Every structure is written in structure tokens, then in C-alpha cells.
Amino acid sequence: MPLIVVDVMPKAEILDPQGKAVTRALARLGHEAVGQVRIGKRFELTVEGEVTDALLAQVRTVAEDVLANTVIEDVVGVHVEERA
């Protein structure tokens, strides 16, 4: 069965306290090369049958209507992922 992955991230103008905490922790651990961390959500949807452009568009609509809080989050990706 195909796996569709939906990635949701906080909008750029929204503060990300979890990301800030991880950024500070990485700096304390000596990883100064990491400038900023933003933490989002990943949803994995298993679907029946072939993945078409129409199905991906339907999943994007579901993501925007149900999976993301579009006031503070953006759906940044909807793609098919190969299973290992």
C-alpha cells in the first residue's frame, strides 16, 4: 500500500518555543553550526490503490481542513514515500 506523507510546519511569523529550546540545547552541547530549529508535524497516510494527482490534491485538501491549524500552520509538503 502506498504511503503519503504530509508535512506541517508553524507559519514563519509564529513563535516556535520547542524549536527555540532545541536550538539553545544544541548550542549548549557545542553544535554552534545549527542556527535555528523549527519543529513541525509529520502525518503518514496509507492509501489503497494507485496514487494519482487527484488523490494527492484530495489529501492536500484534507491536510489543510483537518490536519493543520491553518491559522498558525502551513501544509508544506504532500508526497509519496517509498517504504523500506
TrEMBL record:
UniProt-listed Enzyme Commission number(s): 6.3.5.3
Main location: cytoplasm
Pfam families: PurS (PF02700)
Transmembrane feature ranges: none
Catalytic activity: N(2)-formyl-N(1)-(5-phospho-beta-D-ribosyl)glycinamide + L-glutamine + ATP + H2O = 2-formamido-N(1)-(5-O-phospho-beta-D-ribosyl)acetamidine + L-glutamate + ADP + phosphate + H(+)
Matches recorded under InterPro entries: PurS, PurS-like_sf
Compartment(s): Cytoplasm
Keyword match Nucleotide-binding: yes
Statement: the UniProt record of this protein carries the keyword Repeat: no
Pathways involved: Purine metabolism; IMP biosynthesis via de novo pathway; 5-amino-1-(5-phospho-D-ribosyl)imidazole from N(2)-formyl-N(1)-(5-phospho-D-ribosyl)glycinamide: step 1/2
Assigned keywords, A-Z: ATP-binding, Cytoplasm, Ligase, Nucleotide-binding, Purine biosynthesis
NCBIfam families in the record: phosphoribosylformylglycinamidine synthase subunit PurS, PRK05974.1
Family designation: Belongs to the PurS family.
Self-association and partners: Part of the FGAM synthase complex composed of 1 PurL, 1 PurQ and 2 PurS subunits.
Role, per record: Part of the phosphoribosylformylglycinamidine synthase complex involved in the purines biosynthetic pathway. Catalyzes the ATP-dependent conversion of formylglycinamide ribonucleotide (FGAR) and glutamine to yield formylglycinamidine ribonucleotide (FGAM) and glutamate. The FGAM synthase complex is composed of three subunits. PurQ produces an ammonia molecule by converting glutamine to glutamate. PurL transfers the ammonia molecule to FGAR to form FGAM in an ATP-dependent manner.
Record-given protein name: Phosphoribosylformylglycinamidine synthase subunit PurS
Species this chain originates from: Agrococcus versicolor
Gene: purS
